Description:
Layout: E1 2-4, E2 7-14, H1 48-58, E3 62-68, E4 72-79, H2 81-102, E5 106-111, H3 115-127, E6 130-135, H4 138-147, E7 152-156, H5 161-173, E8 178-183, H6 187-191, E9 201-204, H7 209-216, H8 222-228, H9 231-238, E10 244-248, H10 252-264, E11 268-272, H11 275-286, E12 295-299, H12 307-320, E13 329-333, H13 338-347, E14 351-354, H14 359-370
Helix pairs in contact: 4-5, 8-9, 11-12
Amino acid sequence: LGLDxxxxxxxxxxxxxxIAADRLEAIFEEFxxxxxxxxxxxxxxxxxxxxxxxxxxxxxxxxxxxSTPGTGSAFTVKLPLVRxxxxxxxxxxxxxxxxxxEGPDLQALLVSAAPFExxxxxxxxxxxGVTVTLARTVHHAEELLILQTFDVLLxxxxxxxxNAREMAILARAAGVSRRVIVLSPFERRSFGAPAAAGFDGxxxxxxxxxxxxxxxxxxxxxxxxxxxxxxTVAMAQAGAPRLRVLLAEDNEINALLARRTLxxxxxxxxxxxxGQEAVALMTAALTGETEPFALGVFDVRMPIMDGxxxxxxxxxxxxxxxxxxxxxxIAVTANVSADDRQAAMAAGFDDxxxxxxxxDQLALWLKLAADPSHSSAA
Length: 378
C-alpha cells in the first residue's frame, strides 16, 4: 500500500499456481478462472475479480495483474482517492465552519469502550468542531452527566443494548438535546427504530465527519426533509405509502447492499433470509395481516427453500385467493444463462436479473410497480 503520484496504489501478491499469459485478461470476466478443469483443487465461483474490477472502474481506478506460472501472481490497484479525501475533508470543514458560525461550540459525551473506534470517532468529531469527552464505562458517563453539561450524547452500541437504553434515559433526564446511537452495519437492522430506544438518530461505523454533522443538527420538520430529499425519495414520501419490497436473500452483505439501494430509491425493503420466510411474509400480506407488497426480489439459490420454489408457492397462493393483479417478482442470480432465465420464468418470475443488482434496473421495476395500470405477465 502506498502513494503513486496522486493515486493510492495497492499491491496484493500470492504464491499460488500462477496464471498463464493467455488467461490474464480472461480472469476478470464473470465465471472465468485460471484453472477451468472440473477436478481443480481450489474453490470460488469466478465472480470475485469481475466484481472487484467493476467497483474499481466505478471509482475511476484501474487494476492490473502480472503472473509467473508456478510462482504466483501480483494484482495492482490504483485509485484516485487522495483528491476525493481532500474534497470531503474540505466540505466537512466548510459545513463545520457554518455550524459554528450559527451557534456555540457543541459539547458531546461519547460513551464507548472500543480502544480504536472511540479514538477515531473523537477525531472525526474534533475535525468538524465538536468538543468530545470520552467515557469508557456507563458508570463514568453517569458521573459526567451530573458534573457537566452536554449538547450531544454518542453511545457505542457495542456497550450492549440495555446499557445503551439506560444512557439514553439518563441523558434525556440531564437535558441532552441530541442522543445518537452508533452501530455497525450488521446491527442496524436488528436494532430497530432508534426512537424506540430513546435516541434521535443513529450513525453507522465507521463514522464520517459529514455524517456526524448531519446528526448534530436539530431535527428537521417533515417539510424540510422533503425539500432537501432527492426527487425519487421526496415523491415517495409526499405520496401515499412508500412501496414495500419483499427482499429474499440469504447473504447478509448482498442483502445489506440491496436494502440500501432500495431505500435510496424511495422503497421500504422487508428482508427475508430464505424462501420459506419470504412465503410466510407474502402470505401475511395477502391475508391482510400486514401491508401489501409492491414488488418481490428473490435470490434463486437460498438455503431451506430456494427462490424458484418460493415463487411457485406464492403464485399458487395468489391463484387460490383469486388475486387479480399478482405481485411482480424478480429473480436474482449470479449466472443468468438462457436455462436460468427459462427456469425462473417457468417458476412464475417476471424477470431474471444478474448479480450485483444494477440500480437503474431496480428503479425501472419500482416505477412499473408504482403504476396502477401495470399488470404482471401471467
